[in-house]
Every structure is written in structure tokens, then in C-alpha cells.
Design a protein that fits this description.
By secondary structure, the protein is α/β, with parallel strands linked by helices. It has a single domain, classed as NADP-dependent oxidoreductase domain (TIM Barrel), CATH 3.20.20.100. Helices cover 36% and strands 13% of the residues. The chain has an 8-stranded parallel β-barrel, surrounded by 4 helices. It has a two-stranded antiparallel ribbon with strand order 1-2. Strand 6, helix 4 and strand 7 form a beta-alpha-beta unit. Helix 1 crosses helix 2 and helix 5 packs parallel to helix 6. The protein is globular and about 50 Å long.
Length: 337
């Protein structure tokens, strides 16, 4: 069964593998298949589920709420997010204004069919709303019992420090950061992780398998397999594109002997790798088929020896992205519409 870890400097325990439904639910995968994946996660011991209002323009939350219907609510940890445009994308349908946060939490609770979420996350930093306004709104969401905890996603180290200081003044704390993190994308290590440790946040990382590239299924010099994310015209191809360079694909193939030595698949090795970071509370895994869940949960509890961690670094060499400035670069400079 999947192990639990504390989320940041809080008393909340979450499963170190968390099921996420970005891209898949409400868009790529039919509802019946999505429900089967959620139930496979539950059967594997996963009790933590991550979604967002923007996923499939609110449909992903609906699918997750339906799939979890009948489960004991107190035995689940449900996370969602606010920031990106939803609905008709009107002037106040995005960002972290008080208006949007208050309206969005109510919409998310309705779609998820619950009275509260365990973790409510700022999906990006809103440069057009005073941070004091955003933090006050989150404080009120917590006091109203609509969220137990507050987190952020893709915030820089400076933004985390400023947000944490304000949160503490208002009587609550930020407990989590949700960044992209994988063997190929390590931009949080230099600045975000130290700031998070300082402020008591744990990482819930997304894309630990680098959009599927670290499974090794994309071979250098060969077309992408049919049905893979790289061939998905609904949006999946756009997200995997940055990792589809030939030098990256060639380096990734060097990981196969290391995975073999560990008795793991390359996907399991990739997920286990992010869990070696002591500031990572959970890795988000998604699935379009239940058997993918069954396979990926084998990464829980795995310890990769130091010598093999060094071999992974050597195998990937200079194709790894480490620039901490990429966190800010990947965040909108103006509120999206």
C-alpha cells in the first residue's frame, strides 16, 4: 500500500503518491474510464486526490466528485486550485482577487460534492492583485471551514516568503507548493526548496515522469507512439513538446540499465526519484488506464541508493534544466483571460 507523508510543517498526512486528473478527466478520458482509474487509485491505497477548477473548464472537478461519491469523506484528502480562467472567462473569472477566490471555492465545492477541500491552492501568483487581498481571502476561506489548508503552485522563492509572512500575520500558514519537478526539470532545487523548508511548505510535485518522456517510450529518431501524449491534438502534445528534443530522448535511454538494476520500470524509477527529495511530500500521478496506477504505485517506499542517484545524474548530463528563473518565466505576467 502507498505510504503517507506529512504535508509540509503541518499535521496533515497525505499519500506520497497523489492521484491527479489534469488533462485526462473531462477531456481525454471518458467518464467511465476516469472513474475506473480513481477506483484503482483507492484500491492501491491512494487517498489524496488533486484537481483544479480550470481542468477541462471545471469538468474535471465534476468527474472527480462523481467518482468519489460514496467514499467516507474523512478518509480522503481532496485538493483543488484557483487562478486560471473558468466559465465564460469574464473580467473577474480569473486571478486571485477576493471576488474570484470566494466565487471559485463555492463552485469547486459544488462540483466536488463536498462541504470542504483539504487543500486549496493558488494555481499561480497573481501580479495584478495585492497579495494582502489574496491572503485575506484565503484566511476567510479557512475560517469559513471551506478549506482546511492553503497552498500555492509554481510560486517563486520570494513569492513563497512574502505569502507565508502575510499568512502567519492573518493566523494561518501556507503548507504546500505544487511545482513541476522531475529528473529532467530541477528548477526548484536551488531556490524554491530552501525557501519552502524555511517557511514550512512541502512539495506536491507534478509531472514526475516529464509528461511521459521518462518512461522511455519516445525513442530518438522514431515517431511518437500512436495514442501517446505527444500525438494528442487536444492539448497534450503542447505540454510534452519541450522534452522531445533528440539529445534529451537519447540521454533518457541511458536510464534503462539503472531501472533494470533496481528492478523497476523507467516510470517507476522516475517517480521514486522525486520522492528521494526530503522536501517532497507527494508526487502526482495521473492515468488514462487503471493498470497505469497499479504499476506506478510500486514506486512508493522505494529507496534509490546514493550511487545510483549519482549514475542518474551522469546518465542525463547537461540536458537537465536547472535554471531557477524558469519558475518565474513560466508564470503569467498579467492575469489571463
Amino acid at each position: 500500500m502507498v505510504a503517507y507523508r506529512y504535508l509540509g510543517n503541518s499535521g496533515l498526512k497525505i499519500t506520497e503518491l497523489t492521484y491527479g486528473n489534469w488533462i485526462t478527466h473531462g477531456s481525454q478520458v471518458e467518464n467511465e474510464q476516469a472513474t475506473a482509474c480513481v477506483h484503482a487509485a483507492l484500491d492501491a491505497g491512494i487517498t489524496s486526490f488533486d484537481t483544479a477548477d480550470v481542468y477541462a473548464n471545471t469538468k474535471a472537478e465534476v468527474v472527480l466528485g462523481d467518482a468519489l461519491k460514496g467514499q467516507r469523506r474523512e478518509s480522503l484528502e481532496i485538493f483543488t486550485k484557483v487562478y486560471w480562467p473558468t466559465g465564460p472567462a469574464g473580467a473577474n473569472d480569473s486571478g486571485l482577487s477576493r471576488k474570484h477566490i470566494m466565487e471559485s471555492i463555492n463552485g469547486s465545492l459544488t462540483r466536488l460534492q463536498t462541504d470542504y477541500v483539504d487543500l486549496y491552492q493558488a494555481h499561480r501568483f497573481d501580479k495584478e492583485t495585492p497579495l494582502e487581498e489574496t491572503m485575506q481571502a484565503f484566511a476567510d476561506v479557512v475560517r469559513q471551514g471551506k478549506a482546511h489548508y492553503i497552498g500555492v503552485s509554481e510560486w517563486t522563492a520570494d513569492q513563497i516568503r512574502r505569502g507565508s509572512a502575510l499568512a502567519k500575520e492573518l493566523g494561518f500558514q501556507l503548507i504546500s507548493s505544487q511545482p513541476q519537478y522531475s529528473m529532467l526539470w530541477r528548477v526548484i532545487e536551488e531556490e524554491v526548496v530552501p525557501a519552502s523548508k524555511e517557511c514550512g511548505l512541502g512539495q506536491i510535485v507534478w509531472s514526475p515522469v516529464a509528461q511521459g518522456v521518462l518512461t522511455g517510450k519516445y525513442k530518438p529518431g522514431q515517431p511518437a507512439p500512436e495514442g501517446s501524449r505527444a500525438t494528442d491534438t487536444k492539448g497534450g502534445a503542447r505540454f510534452v513538446e519541450r522534452f522531445m528534443d533528440e539529445p534529451i530522448l537519447e540521454r533518457v535511454q541511458n536510464l534503462q540499465p539503472i531501472a533494470d538494476e533496481m528492478g523497476l520500470s523507467m516510470a517507476q524509477l522516475a517517480v521514486a526519484w522525486v520522492l528521494q527529495n526530503d522536501n517532497v511530500s507527494a508526487a502526482i500521478i495521473g492515468a488514462s488506464r487503471p493498470e497505469q496506477i497499479t504499476e506506478n504505485v510500486k514506486a512508493s517506499g522505494v529507496t534509490i541508493p546514493a550511487e545510483l542517484m549519482a549514475k542518474i545524474d551522469e546518465a542525463l548530463g547537461d540536458v537537465v534544466e536547472r535554471d531557477p528563473a524558469m519558475t518565474a518565466r513560466n508564470s503569467p505576467s498579467t492575469r489571463p483571460s
